[in-house]
Write a structure and sequence with these properties.
Strand content of chain A: 25-35%
Number of helices of chain B: 3
Structural class of chain B: alpha/beta
Shape of chain B: globular
Order of helices and strands of chain B: EEEHEHEH
Strand order of the largest sheet of chain B: 1-2-3-4-5
Strand order of the largest sheet of chain A: 1-2-3-4-6-5
Helix content of chain B: 25-40%
Largest sheet of chain A: 6 strands, antiparallel
Helix content of chain A: 25-40%
Oligomer: heterodimer
Number of strands of chain A: 6
Number of helices of chain A: 3
Radius of gyration of chain A: 14 Å
């Protein structure tokens, strides 16, 4: 994993592995998070594209919306894989979920996450916490 | 040829990071996009597209990844090209195609084959 300073914990065994990242809520963290998880899955014969897209949309949501009107805060990302099932938690400590009048995106990020995962849960109390579970698909 | 590296890369861009190459072609310009087009890259691409006028072909074949933020920039540029002086078209890549399919969105981009050099 490339950025050791951002990683709190990384555990890997052939069938079970986990990664925790503590990142600033800035645009570069989107690619950094995606890349770290891709590296975690690198030796597994799985299609990393859906996982990368889910992480990208989830982290982008935090960067765009969680700290609007404030200095960029932190985001925490926890990823674990257990027997082919990936669990992802993305949490921030920002303003919670509310409509953003300056949204310049397509507004399809959460929709795509919903399409790609088997379970999704969002809680918003003193920040927002997104939990998803998705079955890893084999390459090809 | 003008190569724009990712900000803060110190002149070296790893293959996954976003970068653009713009070159003059007969009757216009060719902009080749490389790497990953996500929220970290959208301001750079949006500014580059906003500064262009005339005929521009954007080659998407070398993008390894596009997310909704990146797709929004391409769609905004495509919409602008229908309203003002930018004559914009794209060379299709796999990354944006897969995203359109995943989102179940119609693909409105104006695609062309690789232009003559």
């Amino acid at each position: 994993v490339s950025d050791v300073g951002a990683i709190v914990r990384a555990v890997a065994t052939p069938a079970r592995r986990a990664l925790t990242l503590d990142l600033p809520a800035v645009p570069h963290s989107v690619s950094q998070a995606r890349r770290a998880v891709a590296e975690m899955l690198d030796d597994l014969d799985v299609d990393v594209w859906p996982v990368g897209l889910v992480i990208s949309e989830a982290v982008s949501n935090v960067v765009r919306h969680a700290y609007r009107g404030l200095a960029p805060g932190r985001l925490e990302l926890e990823v674990s894989v257990d027997d082919g099932m990936l669990t992802l938690v993305v949490a921030d400590f920002g303003v919670g979920m509310s409509p953003d009048p300056d949204n310049s995106g397509l507004g399809i990020g959460m929709l795509m996450i919903e399409r790609l995962v088997q379970h999704m849960d969002v809680t918003s109390t003193g920040g927002t916490r997104l939990l998803v579970r998705m079955q890893l698909a084999p390459t090809g | 040829m003008n190569v724009t590296d990712f900000p803060g890369s110190g002149g070296f861009a790893p293959p996954d990071l976003f970068r653009m190459e713009v070159s003059e072609r007969r009757g216009g310009k060719l902009m080749v996009l490389h790497g990953e087009l996500d929220l970290a890259a959208v301001d750079q691409l949006e500014a580059a597209l906003a500064s262009e006028t005339g005929r521009l072909v954007v080659d998407l074949r070398h993008l390894r990844f596009v997310d909704a933020s990146g797709l929004a920039v391409l769609l905004r540029a495509d919409a602008r090209s229908r309203q003002d002086g930018l004559n914009l078209s794209f060379i299709a890549g796999q990354a944006e195609r897969r995203l359109f399919e995943c989102a179940h969105l119609p693909d409105p981009l104006n695609y062309v084959d690789l232009p003559d050099t």
